[in-house]
Amino acid sequence: RATMKSLRFISAEAFVSNAEFARKSLSGVAHNLYPLLFKASYLLEQGEVIHDLVENWPLVDFNMGKLLGATVDYQEDLSNRTCLVCLKSCLTGLRDYVLNHPSPYVKRLKVVDLTGIKDVEVQFCECKKTMGRWARTQLLSKLSLELLVYLQQTECNPGTFKISIDVLIDLFVTERNYELVVQALLKKCYCPLKICCVAFRSDNLALQKFFYIIKLTDPSLLRKLEIVHNVRLEMEHLEILFNTIHFPLLVSLTLPARTFNVQRFTATDERMLTNIGEKMGEMMQLTELSMSFSILTGRIQKLLSPLKTPLKMLDVSNCSLNHADMAYLANSSHAYHLEVLDLSGHNITDLYPSTFFKLLSHSSSVLRSLTLEDCNIQDTHVNMLILGLSSCQKLQEFRFLGNPLSSQALKHLFTFLCELPMLKNVEFPVPRDCYPTDITYPIDDANLCRFDHQKYESVTEELNLILLQANREDMKASSPLFGSYDAAVQETNNELGASLIKSFKETLEKFTTSLN
């Protein structure tokens, strides 16, 4: 459905559609029209006009999320368009804002906020080329350093050095862009464009480098910290991190796989875990926690009970939780506030059905997203699952890939899911009857694609027909075989893959040496 545009917005589109005319005429445009022209230019991917608008930006702040979000003149939200042409034009325009004005004293811009940009799987821009979070980190760091070099080598107006613009950004650092970002952060105080890190993600980075760069980001301002793939952070390193660095504003924390492993715990490890819990308790804003693929059996209470603020998001997928852990979660204050919950990899229907459904009941009034992948949910459990989900009227996302459900059970479940008014996204497993009879669950990667594709297509058509007949065309149903889309992994998968191969090779060499 086409989004309505105001007459003002239609006029703005007409104005910017002729790039040469628009660029020549900008000096005569009223300042309050710049945001309108910016969104129109972004929609039409007029890179040159975007560059000139930013270069001559007359306002105190430049907030990408607000500029591209729903406005009175045009309701459509464009913040999920990470268009390469548009974003590159924005950032180069920002650099030229510092350089190209006749008088630096008329410049008002103080804050540029790039954090509202959302990286999504499907791009609607014409060029179909994206600039992801890693590339934005790379380009901003590069432009900041180039700007500094240019100012040092050229005779500029002395007032140019007095320009100070805070650029709020979600940094994404890997081995490949580490040196460049470090240099930009080290020289931040001398550069007119000051990188202010609001969220930090690190993949494929040596631990020593992670500890060094995290201190440079100014952790006191950090709201989100993601330490994800191929960063070998273990519990003792996490304790050092929390003991040496304070994160007073941290809202969201993601820890890498195997940070915790209680199977080999000593008395010292128990004390360490208690200390980590207490340090997290000092983070008064912390409401989002992801600790997937750690072994936390029997320790959830020790880790979460010190938290002062109830969690809104919890990912404990594949954490080997036992009945005591689930009972703590179901009865804790966190349960009533959980908007996002991931319990994948736990046999919930066999091990602790009553406590799981108690947890679901307590969180039902606020729960927006539920993930139950590889939970051994079978046909016999579907009615029980429907009963548990029936109170979750605010649910927007439900993911249950990897469960051994038949096509008949899926049809039954889909008929119910149509009744959840806010549900928009469903990720369902390839039906069990599409696989060979000898397949075992959880299905390994080698066998994931060994199903009857024709039969699967037929079942998918039937499921979509159920949605259609219930007037739920707004619901998207899919079966991403290798899990949900991760924009960061998608952007850096070549580097990550090469690193994993190198790591595997080193392990093999050590093994061969020990054998010899």
Automatic annotation (TrEMBL):
Do you know which InterPro entries this protein is assigned to? Leu-rich_rpt, LRR_dom_sf, LRRC14/PRAME
Q: Which Pfam families match?
A: LRR_1
* Ranges that cross the membrane: none
Gene Ontology CC entries for this record: cytoplasm
Tell me the Gene3D superfamilies matching this sequence: Ribonuclease Inhibitor (3.80.10.10)
Does the keyword Repeat belong to this entry?
yes
Q: Which UniProt keywords apply?
A: Leucine-rich repeat, Repeat
Q: Which family does it belong to?
A: Belongs to the PRAME family. LRRC14 subfamily.
Q: What is this protein called?
A: Leucine-rich repeat-containing protein 14
Its gene?
Lrrc14b
